[in-house]
Amino acid sequence: MRANAVRTTMAAGRPVVNAWISSAGPYAAETLSYAGFDSVTVDVQHGMFGRGAVVGLLQAISAGPAMPMVRPSSLDAGQIGWLLDAGAYGIICPSVDTPRDAEALVAACRYPPRGSRSFGPSRGLLYGGSDYVARSDEILVWAMVESAASLAHLDEIVSTEGIDGVYVGPNDLALSMGETPGGRIRGRVRDALCHIVERAHVHGRFVGVFCVDGAEASDCVEIGCDLVTPGNDISMLKHEASRRIAAIRGGRESTSPTSGY
Question: Which helix (H) or strand (E) holds 62?
Fold first, then answer.
């Protein structure tokens, strides 16, 4: 089976830079795959596209060197199985609030006897290789930590057998903590991120996080995050467009980045 370069990079102690695509264009997805990112994540939860676009996006990412990952819309075993069949090499699952949720996520991602995933790998077999089923543990299983409940159950979640890492959604986490979402990771949310990194690493798990831009992503690497996402495709497009407009108009346009998901 094709090795998961994201897993091997993090295991070697090097940070992974992950792109995040929320638009339906396969050309954009392919461009991100060739841009130097280690992985590209297709956002099914908040992306502005339907299920019919997902396979094309994964094919476009797979045409380049980046590893294809997906955030499903929910902890739904049927949908997760279909996304893996479509060729996802990592699942970043939202709303994993309890150890029972974490166990259900692992079960959805693994074949028996470790889990309950149904056989029918389709594109997964094409992309992964003929030994896909026997070595499908190459696929990364990420539980999103994005609520006060998940923080309360953090040690139980990260110690769940089969969970490879946790991925922090700072905006939903901020909302759950009574803080204002959007903008930079700061205050209590930043403190929570540092706590998540410490506890996850104690249990030998990776930590990923969504960031507002490259500067914040660099700071999160310094904190100890193993995977960072420096914004999504739309925020990068908007920021670069604003920067170019400002250069033409003498700095009169805002160049402030906006937070994604």
Answer: helix 54-63
CB 68 within 8 A of CB 61: yes
Q: Helix, strand, coil: what percent of the chain each, to 5?
A: 45, 15, 40
Catalytic residue among 46, 153, 195, 239: 46
Work out the average pLDDT over 218-238. Answer: 97
* Three-class secondary structure of residue 107 per DSSP: helix
Helix (H, G, I), strand (E, B) or coil at 175: helix
CA 222, distance to chain mean position in Å, is 19
CB atoms under 10 Å from CB of 140, counted, come to 25
- Dist CA 78 CA 97 (whole Å): 19
Helices 99-109 and 77-85, interaxial angle, to 10°?
A: 40
Can you give the pTM of this predicted structure?
Answer: 0.94
Whole-angstrom CA distances from 218 to 1, 174, 234 are: 32, 20, 20
Scanning the structure block, which residue is given the tokens 């803080």? 179
State the Cα–Cα distance between residues 18 and 119, nearest whole angstrom: 28
The Cβ of residue 151 has, within 10 Å, a number of other Cβ atoms equal to 18
CA distance 38 to 58: 14
pLDDT in tens, 27-62: 999 999 999 999 999 999 999 999 999 999 999 999
Which tokens belong to 98? Answer: 């309890």
Active site residue 46: yes
